[in-house]
Amino acid sequence: MSEREPLRVLVTGGAGYIGSFTVRALQEAGHEVVVFDNLRYGHRAAVDCPLIVGELADRDVVFSAIADGRFDAVFHLAAYTSVRESVEDPAKYVRHNIGGAINLLDACLAYEVPWVVYSSTSEVYGEARYLPLDENHPTEPANPYGASKLAVEEFLRWYDQAYGLRSISLRYFNAAGAALDGSLGEDHRPEEHLIPNAIRGALGLQAFRLTSPRVDTPDGTTIRDYVHVLDLAEAHLLALQALRRGHPTDVINLGSGVGYSTRQVIELVQEITGVEFPIEPGEPRPGEPPVKYASYAKAERVLGWRPRYGLEEIIRSAVLWHQRFPHGYPE
Ligand SMILES: NC(=O)c1ccc[n+]([C@@H]2O[C@H](COP(=O)([O-])OP(=O)(O)OC[C@H]3O[C@@H](n4cnc5c(N)ncnc54)[C@H](O)[C@@H]3O)[C@@H](O)[C@H]2O)c1
Ligand SMILES: O=c1ccn([C@@H]2O[C@H](COP(=O)(O)OP(=O)(O)O[C@H]3O[C@H](CO)[C@H](O)[C@H](O)[C@H]3O)[C@@H](O)[C@H]2O)c(=O)[nH]1
């Protein structure tokens, strides 16, 4: 099969934030896509392709989705993603993020799907021992969410060794931004991420609360690496091409390489929107690492990927989305 021939790809979590952009990128590249999502956080309106509404933890449902599909690849993005919830209810993260993923991988083996692209996270590293974080940094997740994502990465390695299932795990840093025309965007209910919450503060949709703990950084707020969701979607296509070329099972960081403090992000949202919304004190989130940002040298070397968009374009696109859809996707 030539590297350009269209493939059939199942995207789990494809109705969610990053998934919906990845689905669109696959479709634009000519691939045939089916989405599998339980719609707990995803939205039907975010998807323009066949959608299987199903639960990953239900092994029979997962097996029948794969059995019916004749898929060439699976992009596995579905997961629960709240650090706070994972600390309160770790069992949920074992059952869905680990158990659900294992159901999916077993179905891939049963129906000979050769390639998996997996959504991992910078949370696998825990607190940074050095910066920028590269893929050789020790993995010491500080919460059950990060532990669940790392466990799947590790089993992907074992599944390749034992059964020959090849995969690339993409360790995203902080995904943010929207389609440049504001047609797709981030709609989590409830929303926990900084950029959408600051924009909602600027648009008068809700009060903005600072939940960053006081940390040892120049302005005392946490520092993060924001990467445009369009850049993430592009990286998934490049990972698929790498697998088609025969690249071995691997893990790759996806970040912008630049760290911005929470206060800098808030101030940039204020500047771009022209609204000096109040910053109300919130309950500091426990266990947040003070600083993280990525080295994306490996993504550049292996995938030929580098981020196209910076923080300003991230915020401008997200503002457009929130202005067009202040109440999110129509249900
Ligand atoms: N948003 C980020 O900054 C970020 C950073 C690093 C990694 N990630 C990873 O990227 C992936 C996508 O994240 P997102 O921000 O788009 O989240 P999201 O909640 O918008 O998307 C996840 C989707 O998966 C679905 N889902 C969750 N559990 C499921 C299950 N058991 N069965 C079926 N469907 C299920 C949800 O309904 C949702 O549509 C996740 O795997 C997450 O761990 C996200
Ligand atoms: O309304 C808000 C939202 C966030 N923050 C603060 O802004 C910083 C960034 O918060 P985000 O929730 O946007 O990002 P995190 O780095 O805390 O975590 C996110 O990115 C990780 C990957 O790097 C994981 O995927 C995780 O699930 C996801 O929530 C944190 O200090 C947070 O306390 C606020 O002050 N107010």
Automatic annotation (TrEMBL):
Alphabetized UniProt keyword annotations: Carbohydrate metabolism, Isomerase, NAD
Metal-binding found in the keyword field: no
Keyword Nucleus: no
A Pfam match: Epimerase
Cofactor(s) needed for function: NAD(+)
GO biological process: galactose catabolic process via UDP-galactose, Leloir pathway
Ranges of residues in domain NAD-dependent epimerase/dehydratase: 9-255
Gene that this polypeptide is encoded by: galE
Protein name: UDP-glucose 4-epimerase
Gene Ontology MF annotations: UDP-glucose 4-epimerase activity
Enzyme class (EC, first level): isomerase
Source organism per UniProt: Thermalbibacter longus
Pathway annotation from the record: Carbohydrate metabolism; galactose metabolism
Catalytic activity, reaction form: UDP-alpha-D-glucose = UDP-alpha-D-galactose
EC number, UniProt record: 5.1.3.2
Similarity-based family: Belongs to the NAD(P)-dependent epimerase/dehydratase family.
